[in-house]
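Quick sanity check, TetR/AcrR family transcriptional regulator:
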Amino acid sequence: MVASAALLIRERGAHPTAIADVLAHSGAPRGSAYHYFPGGRNQLLCEAIDYASDQVAARIDKADSAGVLLDAMIAGFRKQLSASDFRAGCPVVAVAVEAGEPGAEETAALDRAGAAFLR
C-alpha cells in the first residue's frame, strides 16, 4: 500500500490521493488500511515520504562516486518520467508543496527525507 501511495502521490499529488484510491491501486482489502495505518491518511502519506526517501538513500549508498550517483539518479528519473508519460514527479516534493502548514508528523517525515537526500 505504501508503494501504491507513493506512486499515486507522484502522479496526482498529495491532496487528491485518498486511502480508497490507494486500496484500489494496491488491491489491498479495506481493513488493511485501518490495521496498518491507524493514523489514517496522514500516516500513509508520511510512510510514502519515508518509502520514497529510502529509495533515494539506497541509490546514494550504492554509488561509488558523484558521477555514478548522478548517472543513476538521471537514469531513475528518466525511467519514472517515461513510464508515466511525464506526469509523475517526486512524492516528497508533492507533499511538501501541498502541506501548507505541515503538522509535526509531516514535518518529521520531510526532515527525514531531507536527511536522506543529504547523505
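Posting the structure with no commentary besides this: The chain has one domain: 2-117.
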